[in-house]
Write a structure and sequence with these properties.
382 residues; mainly alpha; Four Helix Bundle (Hemerythrin (Met), subunit A); 3 domains; three-stranded mixed β-sheet; 16 helices; 3 strands
């Protein structure tokens, strides 16, 4: 009796096992799948798509009546349809899948069972009298599938709706973007992206510090105070660097020449004017330009503070007695005063001697400029 009952419960398994045994013992070739099971999708026209939907409606109706393996074969669904969205030739297509229908047909041969969805443990503990809706049966799912296919067929049979061009909306958007609020909008630069990344990283650091503070108070406190200390040290270091830069910058600004000072004009320009005057055989003007070229060179090397009201003798008095440039500057000053202020006629020889003295002063001034600058700063400090 037990064996007979087992055969009754598993009556559908025995023919499958027998068929497999027969195929293995006879060495017959395996059954090839049909073309409908191998092809997954196909390019279909709207008319072919509508015909396919009509056949699927009939298939679901037949399956709902028979509820056996033959009438509910999933391979009868066929491949999916790749349907055009309009009647034009080169138009976008949409793939309509029927996998949900194949799964439903594969389970349609099972009898209907009203299964209640199990509630979670929290729901059972909180509300034991709550009513849980049962799962839909297979017959209900077949009816829903038939209704869905009919709705798709009705939609496919109606007129094809063309997407609007949205020309009015586009014009309105262009007018809004042309307004003053969006006039200075620019794409984010690399600097903006890097600053955003740094800001996000800082936010993550503070969030992690807050989470650590919730679990271990001392870890979060160390991170916060450490970051604050690092910011303060960086700020103090930046202020010190800025103060040092301004202090170095203020040193030459105290000696910045005025508009009438000799060093307000580059000494090479003075020397170029002297040579032009010499080419024109204007020796008196040439000696005048050579003298001021020397004064401009020495003054630019901080030998003395710039002063546009200083006389040639006052320039000479500012040079120390032990300075090697004292003698040359005295000779050049005397030649300049005799020809320019004394009205003595100058010659080519006088100009050549003045230019030689100026060249000596310029070369010696370049060599001893650093020592003179330090001496001037020491005198000011005193």
């Amino acid at each position: 009796m037990i064996i007979r009952a087992a055969f009754r419960r598993k009556g559908r398994v025995i023919p499958i096992v027998a068929a497999l045994s027969l195929a293995m013992t006879s060495g017959a070739a395996p059954i090839q799948p049909s073309a409908q099971t191998t092809v997954r999708w196909r390019d279909s026209s709207m008319e072919e798509y509508r015909q396919h939907l009509s056949s699927l409606v009939g298939l679901v109706q037949t399956c709902a009546k028979g509820r056996d393996v033959k009438s509910c074969d999933p391979s009868l669904v066929g491949p999916d349809d790749n349907v055009p969205l309009a009647d034009n030739a080169n138009v976008e297509r949409r793939l309509i899948r029927y996998g949900w229908l194949r799964v439903l047909l594969s389970k349609a041969e099972d009898p209907d069972q009203s299964v209640v969805q199990p509630a979670s443990s929290g729901q059972r503990d909180s509300d034991k009298n709550a009513v849980v809706s049962p799962r839909p049966t297979t017959s209900q799912l077949l009816q829903d599938a038939e209704q869905r296919l009919k709705e798709d067929l009705a939609q496919a049979s109606g007129p094809v709706s063309i997407a609007p061009a949205h020309a009015h909306e586009r014009d309105t958007m262009k007018q809004v973007l042309a307004g003053p609020d969006f006039r200075n909008l620019e794409q984010p630069t690399v600097r903006d992206s890097m600053l955003e990344k740094v800001g996000n990283w800082l936010n993550r650091v503070f969030e992690s510090a807050a989470s650590l503070k919730a679990r271990s108070a001392w870890v979060g406190r160390v991170l916060v105070w450490g970051f604050t200390l690092a910011v303060c040290v960086a700020l103090v270091w930046g202020l010190l660097r800025l103060e040092r830069r301004w202090r170095i910058r203020l040193t030459p600004e105290m000696d910045r020449p005025g508009d009438g000072a000799a060093s307000a004009r580059d000494w090479q320009l003075w020397l170029e004017d002297a040579r032009k005057a010499a080419d024109a055989r204007q020796w008196r003007e040439a000696i005048h330009f050579v003298y001021w070229a020397s004064i401009s060179r020495l003054e630019s090397k901080r030998l003395w503070p710039a002063d546009r009201a200083r006389t040639p003798r006052e320039y000479l008095a500012l040079v120390a007695a032990d300075d090697s440039r004292k003698t040359g500057l005295a000779q050049l000053t005397g030649s300049f005063e005799r020809t320019w202020y004394g009205g003595r006629p100058a010659s080519a020889t006088d100009y050549e001697n003045a230019e030689r003295l100026a060249s000596t002063l310029i070369s010696v001034g370049a060599a001893s400029s650093a020592a003179n600058v330090s001496a001037v700063h020491e005198d000011r400090a005193r």
